[in-house]
Amino acid sequence: MRLSGKVAVITGAAGGIGRAVAQRFVSEGAKVVLSDNDFEGLRSVGEEFEEETCCCIPGDVTQKQHNEQLAKEAIDKFGALDIFVANAGVEGRVSSILDSSEEEFERLMSINVKGPWLGVKSVIPAMLERNGGSIIITSSIAGVMGAPSLAPYSMSKHAVIGLMKSAAKEFGSQNIRVNTVNPGFINTRMMRSIEQGMNPEKPSDAKDAMTQRVPMQRYGEPSDVASLILFLASDESRFITGANYLLDGGSRA
Ligand SMILES: NC(=O)c1ccc[n+]([C@@H]2O[C@H](COP(=O)([O-])OP(=O)(O)OC[C@H]3O[C@@H](n4cnc5c(N)ncnc54)[C@H](O)[C@@H]3O)[C@@H](O)[C@H]2O)c1
Fold first, then answer.
1. 113 Cα to the center of ligand 1, angstroms
2. CB of 70 closer than 8 Å to CB of 86
3. Which of 121, 113, 90, 105 has its CA nearest to residue 14?
4. Mean pLDDT across the chain, nearest whole number?
5. Which ligand 1 atom sits closest to the C-alpha of 88?
6. Residue 105 backbone phi and psi in degrees, to 5
């Protein structure tokens, strides 16, 4: 029970990685507040857990009020807030920079950058009350290298590393740790969408081409990401802050 007595807020909990994180956290003894703007998907994730361990709050991470509600719910229902996983995100349309629109750029920045920033702002007061906490932001391998045809996505995932590093420096003395995880290709809806965008005629060819670029010759699974997030959430990583963690099967080696 590596998270016994801990309370966590997880955004994007209806998605592939968020769901795996929620499952792992609950199995390690945490109580969880789950958020997503996919109301039906969130309801289905919530049904996996007992009411005493889980609370689902549907909403949009781009809204200040939703982020504040997540922090409030953790305190009101479970009496604390120790861990925040800012995981909700979107990939955007696969297209050249030359064809991408301002609307698409603003949508990605709002969900992938403003969302985690609002989340961090909302949870830190509760963590200060608790004399510490752990924040994990889901960046990407595209946050440390360029992603052709996904420039706004790559920019947004670089941006949250700036948020992570700044918050780690600002709140380190108060025992609030902040790190990013930077997954490579992970088997979720998001990769299906990117494969479809890369090769609409034959998405499986796009998947084969991307798999060949991974030294371990496979995509990661959501549970692989959940294992790393669990480590960063738990006290085992108590001297780790301000760092980004690649898990990409060796792609960046
Ligand atoms: N799958 C990958 O290969 C991969 C690689 C690197 C990073 N990531 C990142 O991991 C995170 C999780 O992605 P995933 O692969 O599980 O994809 P996913 O699409 O399965 O999950 C993303 C979740 O975020 C939710 N969401 C989107 N916009 C939202 C909003 N405005 N408010 C609230 N919720 C919102 C979606 O409804 C969805 O449930 C994302 O931040 C993604 O960028 C994924």
1. 13
2. no
3. 90
4. 98
5. 24
6. -60, -45
Q: Is 245 an annotated catalytic residue?
A: no
Atom 39 (ligand 1) nearest CA: 15
Q: Write down the catalytic residue from 25, 78, 117, 153.
A: 153
Superfamily of domain 7-184+221-247: NAD(P)-binding Rossmann-like Domain (3.40.50.720)
Residue 95: which of 85, 105, 109 has the closest Cα? 105
pLDDT in tens, 124-149: 999 999 999 999 999 999 999 999 99
53-91 CB burial, b ≥16 within 10 A, e <16: ebbbbbbebbeeebbbbbbebbbeebebbbbbbbbbbbb
pTM of the model: 0.99
The predicted pLDDT at position 79 comes to: 97
CA 13 to ligand 1 center in whole angstroms: 8
Residue nearest to atom 17 of ligand 1 (CA): 190
Domain ranges of the chain: 7-184+221-247, 187-219
Distance 173 CA to ligand 1 centre (A): 31
Beta bridge partners of 182: 246
Locate the ligand 1 atom nearest the alpha carbon of residue 62 and give its number.
31
Ordered strands of the 83-86 beta sheet: 54-58, 31-36, 7-11, 83-86, 133-138, 176-183, 244-247
Residues of the chain with pLDDT under 50: none
Predicted pLDDT of residue 120: 98
User: In terms of C-beta density within 10 A (0-12 exposed, 13-18 middle, 19 or more buried), how is residue 239 classed?
Assistant: exposed
What digits encode the pLDDT tens for the residues 99-130?
999 999 999 999 999 999 999 999 999 999 99
